[in-house]
Structure formats: structure tokens, C-alpha cells
Amino acid sequence: MATKANLPVTAGSITVPYGHVIGNEKWRGSEVAQKLQGKIRLIFEDGLGLVDFHLSNRTCILYISEADLVAGDEYKRRLVRFRNASSLGGIVIVEKTQISDQYFLAVQKLVVLELGMALLPVANQGEAGQLITQLVREQSKDHNSNPFLRKQCAQLAEPSVFRAVQQIPGVGKTKALLLLQQFGSIHRLCNASVKELELVVGQTVAQQIYTFLCS
After folding, report:
1. What are the phi and psi torsion angles at 193 (to 5°)?
2. Cβ neighbours for 68, distance < 8 A, ≥ 6 positions apart
3. DSSP E strands: which ranges in the chain?
4. Using CA atoms, how far apart are residues 138 and 40, in angstroms rounded to an integer?
5. pLDDT for 53-66, tens place per residue?
């Protein structure tokens, strides 16, 4: 059996069926998996390497738990290995709790500033499951073909998405609501330019958001 040290970085070419998520076998029976069941189709596979969930052929999730943060630097090596060896778009979900909060700034610096990946904080696995569901639904829609989908998505956004946006420096409840109304999803928010963000929250906060999510 492969150890963490010699796990392949990814499973290579992955084809994710429309509306599905491919999950690492280690997540079978977890709270995340239970949250996903009944909302999206979840397929478990061995051999996904360092990746926890594949949302599409090009986007995947790496999950950093409270236990990972407390245990030491292994999670850092895992993230660096992934970024150095994979062309996939990586979204890093991090458990931000009372215990792990002291490590969060270091994780943010590594993920966003040094590795250039998106970072989304969650309180627990249940909230992570809600967030993954929202991300998959967003990827399954073509927003450009229907301008009304943005507003609809903002109205239907999971509470976990709203809370995650509030965690961005300089963003409170009001700005989080404005951002979701404008961009409709975290995917679109991550891909927004500073100028697009400025139109919603002003120059200072726009730069903070861009640095946090998109650098």
C-alpha cells in the first residue's frame, strides 16, 4: 500500500461525468460524503493520489482538516507536491476552528500567495459538503448563456457559501451578500478581476479579496 510520501500526485487523466464528483476512497462513510449523497452523484475511486475530490476534468479539491493542521507540516508538503506536479486547478478547503485558527494565516499565505490556489475556510466536514455541492452545481451551469442565473444562484446559495465569503478579510455580511448577488458563486468570485470587484466593494476591499482568493 502506498504511503503518503510516495502517493502519486494525481490519478492522471480523470473524466468526471456531468453533475458527478469523484471522491478519494478514504472519504467513504465520512460526514462530507453523507452531506453530498442525495444532492450530487458521488463516485469513490482508489488511486486519486493527493487529490480528495475531483469536481470536473480540470478542477479538484484538496481538503486540510483540523487534525492535519495540528499534526505538523505534512499538509504543506502535500500541497507543494500537488502544485509542482499538476496542471489541475486546485481548490483548498481548510477547517478553520477554534483549535486550528492559530495556523490559518500560515495556511493562507502558503496556499494563496505562494502556490496561487484558491482557499475556502469551513467550520467542519458538514459545511464542506454543502460547499462542494454548491461548487459542483455552479460548474454544471453555463452562466454566460443565461443572465438570470446569477441572481437565481445568489438567492439559492448555501449558508456555508455565505459564511465562507464572510471569512475573506474586509468582507462582512453586507459585502458578502453584495458579492454573491453580483458574481453568483465562489468560482466566479475567484476569477473576478480587481476592477470587477471594485465596482461592488471599493478599491481597498477589492484588493484584499483579490489577494486572498486569486493571487
Report:
1. -85, 165
2. 74, 75
3. 20-24, 41-45, 53-54, 59-64, 89-95, 118-122
4. 12
5. 998 878 899 999 99
Q: Say whether 22 sits in a helix, a strand or coil.
A: strand
Give the cell for residue 200.
Answer: 461592488
φ, ψ of residue 32 in degrees (nearest 5) = -60, -50
Which triple of cell numbers denotes residue 76? 504543506
Helix axes 173-183, 159-166, angle to 10 degrees: 120
CA distances to 113, 141, 176, 183 from 207, in Å: 13, 28, 15, 16
State how far the Cα of 101 lies from the Cα of 209, in Å rounded to an integer. 19
Q: Which three cell numbers stand for residue 42?
A: 458521488
Determine the average pLDDT of the residues in 201-214: 81
Query: Which grid coordinates belong to 141?
Result: 451551469
Closest CA to 136 of 161, 100, 165, 170: 161
Task: For helices 173-183 and 149-156, give the axis angle rounded to 10 degrees.
Answer: 140
- Sequence letter at residue 194: V
**Contact indicator for 173, 203 with CB cutoff of 8 Å:** no
The DSSP output letter for 182 is: H
Whether pLDDT at 30 is above 50: yes
Question: What pLDDT digit, counting tens, does each position of 147-158 carry?
Answer: 433 433 334 345
C-alpha cell at 85: 506536479
Q: Taking a C-beta distance cutoff of 8 angstroms, is the pair 46, 25 a contact?
A: yes
Give the whole-angstrom CA distance, residue 208 versus residue 85. Answer: 28
Task: Give the three cell numbers for residue 103.
Answer: 495556523
